[in-house]
Specification:
alpha/beta; P-loop_NTPase; CMS1 protein
């Protein structure tokens, strides 16, 4: 009887642990229930405030805030990538023609992975015309190769991940002074239904890149931010 008495609570403990494990929700379960909602400037502002809220003073957080004039029209989820770019940048042909600087791009597109970068490059065909596009991600491409290409040639659009773009800026391989547009691939979801800002590493690297130089350039009026 004693053995039976001891074995009963053990079984209950195991079953309660299993129940607790089952109850734990995955991010994909939560996202699956939330309907697609286009990103707006306030979403990025809130993200920056939450990220820096605990570690920065009120004055420092104020310096990270961007006015609505810093943003391009947001994607309402009806656009293809090409049609969105045509809408936000109607004078692209002129900008492309006038761009002569090396180690820089006119438009920077930031997304969550190398695979997604390639998808976006393919889908912007109708917009880009005969401009030169550079892949700015780490997969199968060494950073020295990208720095060499930027130094030797003139590129109009850079598409890649925030980590590699940040590394290129830090190592003086990419200069952002000629950049006019920065597009964040904000609304797209991967197989696990995560957007780029739902992935902790991508989120941190994107915020680091914004803080490093983009926010300052936006406040000065030289760069416009777009949420696709």
């Amino acid at each position: 009887p004693t053995e039976c008495f001891l074995s009963q609570p053990e079984e209950k403990q195991e079953s309660t642990v299993k129940a607790k494990r089952r109850k734990k929700k995955k991010i994909s379960d939560i996202l699956e229930k939330s309907p697609p909602k286009p990103g707006v400037p306030a979403d990025l502002q809130n993200l920056l405030s939450q990220h820096f809220g605990e570690n920065r003073s009120v004055i420092e957080i104020e310096e990270l805030k961007l006015s609505d004039s810093c943003f391009l029209p947001a994607n309402d989820l009806t656009h293809s990538f090409s049609s969105y770019l045509k809408e936000i940048c109607p004078k692209w042909a002129k900008l492309r023609k006038n761009h002569k600087e090396k180690k820089s791009v006119v438009m920077l597109v930031i997304c969550s992975s190398a695979l997604r970068s390639l998808e976006l490059i393919k889908s912007m065909t109708a917009f880009k015309g005969d401009c030169r596009v550079l892949k700015l991600f780490a997969k199968h491409i060494k950073i020295k190769e990208q720095m060499s290409m930027l130094e030797k040639g003139v590129f109009h659009i850079g598409v890649g991940t925030p980590g590699r773009v940040k590394a290129l800026v830090e190592q003086d391989g990419l200069c952002l002074n000629s950049t006019k547009y920065m597009i964040l691939d904000w609304n797209w979801r991967d197989q696990k239904l995560r957007r780029m800002m739902d992935i902790p590493e991508i989120k941190k690297e994107t915020i680091d890149l914004l803080e490093m130089s983009i926010i300052k350039l936006c406040r000065e009026g030289t760069v416009k931010l777009g949420l696709f």
